[in-house]
Request: fold
Amino acid sequence: KKRAADARIEVDKLIEEDYGQFKDEVFTKENMMNAFQSPSELSVERLQRRILIKIIEAQLRTSDDTTFNWVIAGHSAAAGHGNLFNQTTAFILEQTARPFFEALGITFYGKNYAMGGTKSAPENALCMSAVYGPDLDILSWDFGMTDGSREPTLYNTWTQRAGVHPTSPTIISFGSAFAGTIHQEVEKAGMSAFQAVFVNEKSGDLLAAKFPDSDDSKVNVTELPRGVKNYRCGGRTETGEPCGDKLIKFNTEGVCEQMRGQVSWHNGHKDHLLRGRVSALFLIENVFEALSKLDETPLAASESESDGEEDKRIAPSISEEYLSYLHSLEAKDKESFKNSEPPKVHHFEDRLTELHDAFLRSNNVCRYAYLPSYTRYEGILTENRQEIKYLGGGRITYQDEGVRSESQPAPKPDSLTEPLLVYNAENDRLVCSDAQIDFKDYFGIRNEDEWVATIIPNDSEEEVFVSDYEKENRKGVVTVCERVFAWGRFPENFVSIENVLNTSDTTITVNDIPATEYQVIGTENGRCHVLGNKDGFTFPASLEHGPGKYEIKFKVPEKGGVLYLSSFIIF
Reply:
């Protein structure tokens, strides 16, 4: 506790540098705890329990590297397009929280894995472990601009897949219109869920409303601290004059002279600063709350920890016994979620009704092309792990793998080749090196190559993402997702899965069984296709390649055509 208190002093210095005299008024414990709202105290208890587990593990297992991982997922605004990478929410979050957690023996990561122009589901939700990693403590959702607010299918899919993620992370919504009702259900089932209300312009919880308007003639702007000066004008953040001026909203001069994404719908650096600082302080306040539990004496089991039977209570302490007890409570919540009734999601109904629950709850293997992603950074996709250095905020010293879009190899129609892993599509690598790290690489399948084949999972994917039980009990559902193109601007040689399958010839096979039909899941510019055959939407296991492995072969019939795929998903 003494180490935590000392580390908190350093955090307060950061806040004072940014917000000066507003630190004591705005960044109070009450405001920080209220910045993220949950359906009930159950979510708070579960988050603080995870924090306690990490603290105790760090003290008892000093030879191990105890980590706390908060990954931010979302669209281009969440990724910080238009800003320098070190100005983004995730980077600021990590910068604020990392030294504090280090004082407790924990390595904290705040990773920016947001991807411009993508939706939360189906692809990102179904590929959650491959994209965001198998070890998550908090997972943020910030897809409001791309998911829309018409119906809850996408957010339901996202929360259900988070519930069966290996480490059952706390989920935090930045702006989902459905968080209120859906969070009630998933919390009841066993999850921890919050929504960030401090960023909601329509709520009374907007923290930025506590700052003065810089266009107010009564305000001496020159005396405002850097996090407040020219941040709010006319009662709104980063709009109006001078707050919405590009040179003020996006502070990139002298570092990146040519910047993409400096548009009105992207947050500027002061928005990211506030989001990052508040997110870190919310977590830090919960650390202190968790530490206070170590002084408590065991009481009767709370509603969240009781299953109606006599519940053995263990006195809180830095001990293996208490750690084991906390792990048992997490396991109970995980089992509770597993046994709960999933919501009805219309993407997985009609012809997929028998597989509905599998899409929401079953283990899968996803081969994913986009960056950033765990499966790419860890060398799982290519089975070639690089010597990498962590640079902060989720950025690493990763070297591009695959082939450049403009330098693809000559076709090999006489041999069975793998799909090409292609990068620099649309010249997306021509960005400032201090800016974004998200790129839509893809698996290219060309007409000139005749038959192209891949086996999923490879050995590395199987080792990381698949247990022996899951390998033996794979359902044989195969889904492929098409690469997203900004604003629907498809290249001239683009060929869709529909075009490939709408022919009398065999063009796709799974374990040598012809795929003859498909079912689209997802929405426009974010679609995946579930492959089917004459007997339905499952394919038999491979006697040649072993249980749980599927060889998928493609042949693009259209001359000069290319299938642009972003992922293969096997249930």
Observations:
- The mean pLDDT is 93.
- Residues 159 and 186 are 7 Å apart (CA to CA).
- The two ends are 45 Å apart (CA to CA).
- DSSP finds 19 helices and 22 strands in the chain.
